[in-house]
Amino acid sequence: MPTCLRAALIASAVLALASCGGGDGGGGGNVPVDFSLNSCALTTSTGGAVVVGSGLAGDPSAPEAASGYRLGKTAVSAKKYIVVTANPLASKAGCDVLKNGGTAADAAVAVQMVLGLVEPQSSGLGGGAFMLYYDAKNKTVQAYDGRETAPAAATENYLRWVSDTDRSLPQPGGARASGRSIGTPGAVRMLELAWQDHGQRPWSELFTPAIGLARDGFLIGGRMADAIAGGAAGLKRDAEATAYFFNADGTPKALGTRLQNPAYATTLGTLAQGGANAFYTGPVAQGIVSKIKVTSGGSPAVAITPGLTELSDLAGYQAKRRDPVCTTYRAYWVCGMSPPSSGGIAVAQALGILENFDLAPLKPTGSLAEGGRPTVQGVHLVSEAERLAYADRDAYVADTDFTPLPGNSWDTLLNKNYMKSRAALISPTRSLGTASAGVFGSTRMGVVPLEERGTTHFTIVDAAGNAVSMTTTVEAGMGSFHFTQGFILNNQLTDFSATPTDTAGLPVANKLQAGKRPRSSMAPTLVFAKAADGSRGEFLMGTGSPGGSTIIQYVTKTVVGALDWGLDAQQATSLVDFGAANSPTTNLGGEHPVLNLANNGNGDPLITGLRALGHTVSTAAQSSGIGTVIRTVSNGSQTLQGGADPRREGLVLGDN
């Protein structure tokens, strides 16, 4: 679709949001809220069209198609409350909840219900999530685990072959699009748990915005339109998905199409009245299990290997409160998600290694309007630290309910002495290429490379100072392509290693086991000041991103950008996506305007400088969706500052 038409459609949506009135709002208690009122002020524009498929080398890139880059975004300021999501309609829903007296937990429920409608390719009822919640009154941080689980009947070869007697691949074409990829969804149960702990508004009220949008319709955005077209073959194996996502002539519903989802509205109405139990038992649960067990689909029909999930798997699902991974970094405390996500430990490791270097002089140069131009040595050191962190993550981190960490403690991987020893492996003049994992006694684990895919992220701060950082996913774009009752089912089990041992016969920490949660890279992050006595002080920052295994890189560069280089919330978010997993390749997001990709980048000093240090530089366009909030002081008073990733359709809303 022409860029000008995309711009016109997005501009129409922005104008609709811009009509929202201002004011501080009210609410609290159980006062009914009329969500038909456009009550939240628009505090930033989208800054131009989001174009999926920028035309740059490497675009689209895994894990999701990049969305180009929106120039000119600046940090948004709010007085009391703020919300950053990857979609304007979700930001509006969350901001309205905050305006009407809701907590960050209340707003998170409303945001996720809308995201499941307008970004079905990224997250929804059929997926999972991780959340960090800061309770400002009690000054505590709680991690919530809503990761999907493998069914009770799953074996370690569940994704590898149909059965022990039929050692053929699950169909069609492997596990991803089969019922075998679908884990028991966890997002709904997790959100209810967090709401029970921290919510104020009635549960049923929080579904109202999404129910209204599902019934009345919404305009398909650019990312959703491209996800439908890109996933056409998989979606068309499912009759319900075909009816919803495609026109009568079989063509994908396009950008700007008004889409109604009455089935989703009905499902949400059931959950609004019956709580999470209405999802994990009864007709909704039966619909999920029946869809997981389908054996064929499409026209002409193709075989689909069914999953082995039963109603008992859903009924028995438990969201978990976990202790967050909180470590010190210079003058700060940084809290991240604990296993089964590897994100918190990997980000903490990268920062712990970088703490041994003076990064301040290596800050980006030139105009900081888009985050500035990263320095060669700055990118080099961050990327090397990440190589070392990924090496340990790949070898040792998995669901600790099944596979303990070395020493049965995060401290083994995160203590200052170990971080100093890892930092000593970094040369300022030559890249490690591929790092080795640390050695802990006789513990040896195998590594099987995995490709993780896309998600979505949002960050919320409410008027009481409570904060949410939540990353939520269905794994690949459009998940498993299985669609039921208005929502997509995940393919999250493909985040397990399909083989239980590596090529050397060593056991893999992230092997599949019944009831186990697959390792994730999601890294919702909260940052606090370090108090005078060394304890955790005031909330300073919340951030996170989608992006599969590259989430760790996106979050690390954002935290370093803010804490070490003094970038504001938008600059740190907009900053070139850079970093490395444990390979010789270093990523530089080629969609960013500061890079010169002409002539294979031979005229760009950052690219050539990294190559001179031995980095293999990839300039594939990146698909981060970072959402950042920073608490700052402006004119003597505290202000909330928000930044939404210019690579997606995100929007910052708050009171102004």
Q: Count every beta strand, where a strand is a DSSP E run of 2 or more residues.
A: 23
How helix-rich are the residues, as a percent range?
A: 25-40%
- Count of structural domains: 1
Q: Given the helix and strand composition, which structural class is it?
A: alpha+beta
Number of helices: 19
Separation of the first and last Cα atoms: 35 Å
Mean pLDDT: 89
Widest β-sheet, arrangement of strands: 1-22-21-17-16-11-10
User: What would the principal axes of the Cα set say about the shape?
Assistant: globular
Outline the low-pLDDT stretches. 1-38, 42-63
Strand content: 15-25%
CA radius of gyration is 23 Å
- What profile does the largest beta sheet have? 7 strands, antiparallel
Report on this structure.
By secondary structure, this protein is of the alpha+beta class. The chain is built from 19 helices and 23 strands. The strands form 6 sheets. A 7-stranded antiparallel β-sheet has the order 1-22-21-17-16-11-10. A 7-stranded antiparallel β-sheet has the order 9-4-3-13-12-2-23, with helices on one face. The longest helix is centred in the middle third of the chain and has 21 residues.
Q: In terms of topology, how is this protein built?
A:
Blueprint (H helix, E strand, L loop, with lengths): L2 H16 L57 E3 L3 E4 L2 H12 L4 H15 L9 E8 L4 E7 L40 H12 L9 H9 L1 E2 L2 H9 L1 H4 L3 H7 L12 E2 L2 H13 L2 H4 L1 H11 L3 E2 L4 E2 L7 H5 L4 E3 L2 E5 L2 E5 L6 H12 L21 H21 L14 H4 L1 H8 L32 E6 L5 E7 L9 E2 L2 E2 L36 E6 L5 E8 L7 H13 L5 H6 L3 E2 L5 E4 L16 H8 L3 E3 L8 E8 L2 E8 L6 E4 L2
Parallel strand pairs: 19-20
Antiparallel strand pairs: 1-22, 2-12, 2-23, 3-4, 3-13, 4-9, 5-6, 7-8, 10-11, 11-16, 12-13, 14-15, 16-17, 17-21, 18-19, 21-22
